[in-house]
Design brief:
Elements: E1 8-13, E2 19-28, H1 34-45, H2 57-66, E3 70-77, E4 80-88, E5 94-95, E6 109-110, H3 118-124, E7 129-136, E8 146-156, H4 161-170, H5 175-190, E9 193-196, H6 202-219, H7 228-239, E10 246-254, E11 257-266, E12 270-278, H8 287-298, E13 306-311, H9 315-320, E14 323-333, H10 337-352, H11 358-368
Parallel strand pairs: 5-7, 12-13
Antiparallel strand pairs: 1-2, 2-3, 3-4, 4-6, 7-14, 8-13, 8-14, 9-10, 10-11, 11-12
């Protein structure tokens, strides 16, 4: 039985343009019953814009098993749910996406004919504001709160790997030939190259984490793996294997030694790139690109129609992508003093980034951001 944390009723537009009353109530993610989870999966499968594994109920439930603040807003009309809004609670009513630090997609899971007001959903979930950084542009409920846009780089494999390679060649890319030369050199120097699409070996996951932590330290990037809940979530997702959702731990070896590892998550049709890493001793061979190209060649056989590389300007994304997915960033707000503070912190952060006084001003900005949810 789900435990209601809040309840709010408002009018919404449902399929066929019939106006009806929708009730929003927030419940712990772990309390959803089998029927509710089944409805969630049904809604996700029915909407192309929700194909990402981040929208699968399994992703929310596994992150919720690793941390205690994951909630789901149930959007109910008539005799059952017509939508779901997963989120993390935060101080002063400021929410964040589920697994915000490690999540590339988020938003509302609802049928194509359901049109809702984001503010009313926040009210039903007892939120004053909700920060988002990668909501699909198709989710018009958040359009008016968007402050910027970006694209997620995508390898479109809907017509198969050979067509993908042909398309890249036609665009002037020498990707396959270049990576092929490096793979052959790697084999000459170290021995036979072997690719494993998925390994259940926890030791390989531990190796990936070791390499990734070292990369974070060398580049100065935020160390996501320094948080226990992230490491727990990765282990749980790696262990999860079903047709609808799975962790995919891919491995590239040369002469029996691991040279590149990648942990991704997949839905029935999309593999999302998540945590790639390689042994820096092999950097000159571009082992990450070799691994990604082998993934692109092998995964269509298991029903994958796209590899989403995520947003950002990484060099490998620019080399590999042949499509894109538009995303929105912003803050959805219920008018309040808290929302004004969140807006002020965002403005201050942007200004600090453009001044030489950044080191002195950052503590002030952090105090403003105290109202926001941290990863």
């Amino acid at each position: 039985m789900a435990i209601a944390l809040g309840r709010h009723m408002f009018s919404c537009m449902l399929c066929g343009d019939h106006r009806g009353k929708m009730v929003v109530r927030a419940v712990p993610a772990g309390s959803l019953d089998r029927a509710q989870l089944g409805r969630w999966s049904e809604l996700q499968r029915g909407s192309p814009s929700l194909a990402s594994p981040y929208f699968c109920p399994e992703y929310t439930r596994l992150v919720a098993a690793a941390r205690q603040d994951v909630r789901v807003g149930l959007l109910e009309a008539g005799d059952g749910p017509v939508g779901f809004f997963p989120f993390q609670g935060g101080r002063f009513g400021v929410g964040a996406p589920v697994g915000s630090l490690i999540t590339d997609y988020h938003g509302i899971i609802a049928g194509e004919g359901v049109h809702v007001d984001a503010v009313e959903i926040l009210r039903g979930c007892n939120l004053k504001a909700w920060r988002f950084h990668h909501v699909p542009a198709a989710q018009t409920a958040f359009g008016r709160f968007s402050r910027s846009r970006c694209d997620s780089a995508v390898i479109d494999l809907s017509r198969g790997f050979e067509e993908y390679v042909h398309e890249r060649r036609a665009s002037g890319s020498h990707l396959e030939a270049s990576i092929g030369r490096k793979e052959r050199k790697l084999e000459r120097d170290y021995g036979p190259v072997r690719y494993v699409q998925h390994t259940p070996d926890p030791g390989v996951l531990a190796l990936l984490m070791k390499w990734k932590i070292r990369q974070y330290r060398q580049t100065g990037a935020i160390d996501a793996l320094g948080r226990r809940w992230v490491r727990t979530a990765l282990r749980l997702i790696h262990e999860t294997q079903s047709e609808a959702f799975a962790g995919v731990l891919s491995l590239l070896c040369a002469g029996g030694s691991p040279v590149a590892v990648h942990l991704g998550i997949r839905s029935s049709t999309v593999l999302h790139s998540w945590f790639p890493a390689y042994d820096p001793r092999f950097a000159s061979y571009s082992p990450g690109l070799i691994l990604f190209l082998k993934m692109a060649e092998s995964v269509p056989a298991s029903g994958i129609r796209a590899i989403d590389l995520g947003p950002g300007e990484g060099q490998h994304k620019q080399i590999l992508k042949n499509a894109g997915s538009p995303l929105l960033e912003g803050i959805a707000e219920v008018p309040s003093l808290t929302a004004k503070a969140v807006r002020a912190s965002r403005t201050a952060r942007a200004l600090v980034g453009r001044t030489r006084l950044a080191p002195r001003l950052r503590p002030i900005v952090r105090s403003l951001e105290g109202v926001a949810t941290r990863g």
